Prior knowledge:
This protein is about 45% helix and about 25% strand. By secondary structure, the chain is of the alpha+beta class. The protein has a single domain (about 5-125), classed as 2-Layer Sandwich (Pantoate--beta-alanine Ligase, Chain: A,domain 2). The strands form two sheets. It has a three-stranded antiparallel beta sheet, covered by helices on one side. A two-stranded antiparallel sheet has the order 1-3.
Amino acid sequence: MSNAPFPFFAVIVLAFIFLFLPEMAIYTVQAAKANDVAEQTTKHAELVGGITDEVKARFKETLKEKGLNPDLFTVSYSREGEVEHRGKFVVQVKGSFTFRAFNFLGTGRGLIKVPITATDSGMSEVWIR
């Protein structure tokens, strides 16, 4: 008789895992893509010699290539413009992901918004004269 509640709780725990696991996988993929975008933007800025209009345009292209929504993801830079050789800068990509697993009957209740942040730092490789 003492083992009677176990199947009930096991079903609840398994249901929670099966509902939450696909959303968690999508969140993980988007976080990894945001990290890739930050790394690619930083590498491009290093090769160009700073945060130029070309780097900003390339950021938008990279977002589209990775399948991330440009309305949900933004970028910020610690410095803008040309950066002298060995000058450091930071690129930070911010976005959000909404967990919809607990949105019962489409009412909008139970939506959980989680931030996605990817930060990368770089150093200019271009001599400016």
